Structure formats: structure tokens, C-alpha cells
Amino acid sequence: MHLAILMTNTDESDFAAQWPRDCQKFEDLISSVRPSWRFSCFPVKDGVFPDDPTKFDGWIVTGSPASVHDRTDWIVKLQALIRDRVAAEAPMFGACFGHQVIAQALGGHVEKSPSGWSLGVQEINTEGSPPWGSALPSTYRLYAAHVEQVTKMPTGAENVASSQNCPLAGFRIGNKVFTTQYHPEMRPAFFGALVGHLEEFLPVEAIANAKATQAEPVNTSAWAETIARFFESAVS
Hints:
Layout: E1 2-6, H1 14-17, H2 22-31, E2 38-42, E3 58-61, H3 73-87, E4 92-95, H4 97-105, E5 109-112, E6 118-126, E7 139-146, E8 148-152, E9 158-163, E10 166-173, E11 177-180, H5 188-198, H6 204-213, H7 220-235
Parallel strand pairs: 1-2, 1-3, 3-4, 4-11
Antiparallel strand pairs: 5-8, 6-7, 6-9, 9-10, 10-11
């Protein structure tokens, strides 16, 4: 399996430079359960896109502090690539911004969350039963770091996750598109450092929630297996 990772994270701060980039985070996550798979990274936020999309078995769209409503050239081009690859029935997974931009590209809608920033470990409920999701418990935990969320899914999409403040926390379209609003790629050390980094930028309530929940265990291994099974199901 050869996956293309579309890196959308625009953070070029000194903090970000101290940690693996999002491409590496996702590669480490999936390699933990499928060590033979190959990955190619494309920092689309810098305008770097694959020359030949047909080379890849599947696609991952990462998270980002950017908004899907930004009319930057790279976001416009990314949405066009998403529509092209989905039309070609190439499997695609998106997390956080990736979840949102896939939804927006395919006719869904994204808005600011009425409850404001979600930062910390979030309890999420599984909705529906995608065939690749048997590794996930009915309720699981992942890291949250977002202020926007999907409020309308694309036509033909099925909701696969919900949380207290995010009813559409993930969706699928058949067995070719799978998304989550959350961050399976983040690890505890990084998230703890991220909360400290964001403390001067985000509301006091969001930081307090993050600090209160960040030590809770998250279902990283189950999500690694789930993402891998999704791609295997899509190409079988």
C-alpha cells in the first residue's frame, strides 16, 4: 500500500519546528500496525501537489490551523484534487481540517462551533457500523483541537461519530471516504506541549479543559488499526 499524505498544517512556529511534522505523525501511526506500507508527503500548504495522483493507493488529508473558508490558492487546489480523487473512487481519509475540507469540497458545510474552542481529550460515540471499524469501542477518546466543525455532510455521506459538542464528528461515503474531526495522530507528549504553546492564544476555558483532560488515555492503537483497515477495505 502506498499512501499520499497531503500536509495542510500551516504552523511554521519555533514550537512546530521542535516536533515531527504531520506527515511523520501519520506515517508513524499507520506504520505501527502496517510496517510494510509506503508513504509520500506533499506539503500542499506550500503549493506542493503530486504530479501523478494515479500513483497512489490512497490519500490522507491532515489537520491545520487554517480555515476551509480561506480562499487561498492551495485550499482551492486541494478541494479540486479531493473532488477528482473521490470521483476516481480513490480511498481518502481526513482528520480535523482534513475532515472539514473533504466535507466542504464535496458539497457539505463547515461553521464555527457554537460552543467555541474544543481542546483536550474528547469522548466520542461511534455511530453506525463501518465494516472496517470493529477495532473501535462504542465510546472512545481522541485529542480535540478545533473551533470549526462540519454542520452539513456531503450528499450520500453517513455519520459515523458524535460527541457532546460536535454531532457530525466523522462521516463515511461508502467505503471510499472516511473522516474524523479529531486527531488520532497526536501523542501525549506532543499534545501536552501543544496546550502549553496555545495558552497565550486561546480562551482560558479551552486551556483549562485541555489541562483537566490531557492525561486521560486515548485510543491511538485502535485508530491506527481502523485507518489501516479502511484503506484495505477500500482497495480490496
